[in-house]
């Protein structure tokens, strides 16, 4: 490990505390891109046979038509799945999930929701997530797992029959897939809004500190 | 002193990579470096100019081919589609085509003949009466459309693999290519492995009644392991071939394997 020693240059310089390690930042932005591609191409696929009485605006649906939307969806899925798997493995292995997201107590969530709604929620130490953040971040990981499982089941309902059974049947897996997408969109709106309200959190996700 | 960039405070990233590489076994090291090349290919996807749609389309088509290869590698092509009780049948089973029911082929069963071509020993054409005499089986399976909707139906007919055996088809050929009577000339290729799947059927009846016009009279090919558009209706000929001859929807960009 001889080559890893600190050079004279660094002595005396105390670098700011790392809030987001580099693996979190890289995976976060890959995930952001993959999610947006999956959502927009998913809208195109939804429009071919809507579950509800509306369609997504054509200009936002990726792929031009159903065939193109499917090609985008089944290409971006690799990005989402490989990155997502790597994130889950690293998150558990490094203990980040346990350290950052737990515990989540009802009283803690209630207290912080109240504080947030009255704009009294402090953001002095970005390395510690408040209870609202913990709940949202843990929740969106669960939604991410669900949307991938229901999507895989719909993609290969014969080969991955047990995945379809997990949700009951094929049509139910479709609804689960849709509502997970809706949850991710809602998360995205809140997440981006809050990041803009606390710009230093956005900076931490880009340069780490 | 040379300018250095630091990914982790106090750690020179070039030296870190050098040390990490040394710690890897030789085989892993080579794969790690080879992996870098494919990561570079991945940035093509993210960095590609979407406005230049032809390059994006080429790339997407390549990924689609890659997906086919992955599927062929990890999935069992003989896996059976789930079957359902009669109570699960969707009523009414939807009519679906790129035209209205009024424009569906209206075929006279007495004049119709199934033409057999290509790599088969016996190229004789088959009348409907001759086909009706072949042993038939029933299946209640879910039809899944590429659009996402699905419906459970009851189909009765002769397993395609039995018929292929009967006519002495070369089952080492790559495809069975179906041509249909739909307007604009519907056709679709079926890979041989799927053609030989035990549930793939030449369907003559729906819900124990002679196949109605809406569902493809006189003959439909029911492939419960494929999306709906790979289940041709109003079939007039089948050709056993090694050539990929394309298909109505396949040519427009739906994945030709489209197996579920």
Mind explaining what this structure looks like?
The complex is a heterodimer of chains A (209) and B (260). Chain A has 209 residues and is mainly α. Chain A folds into two domains: 64 residues, no CATH class; 112 residues, no CATH class. Helix content of chain A is 67%, strand content 0%. Chain A is built from eight helices and no strands. In chain A, helix 7 crosses helix 8. Chain A starts with 21 loop residues before the first helix and ends with a helix. The mean pLDDT of chain A is 90. Chain B has 260 residues and is of the alpha+beta class. Chain B has three domains: 47 residues, no CATH class; 29 residues; 167 residues, Sulfite Oxidase, Chain A, domain 2, CATH 3.90.420. Chain B is built from six helices and twelve strands. In chain B, the strands form three sheets. In chain B, strands 4-3-12-7-8 form a five-stranded mixed β-sheet. In chain B, strands 5, 6, 9, 10 and 11 form a five-stranded antiparallel β-sheet that branches. In chain B, strands 1-2 form a two-stranded antiparallel sheet. At the A-B interface, helix 1, helix 2 and helix 7 of A face strand 1, strand 2, helix 1, helix 2 and helix 3 of B.
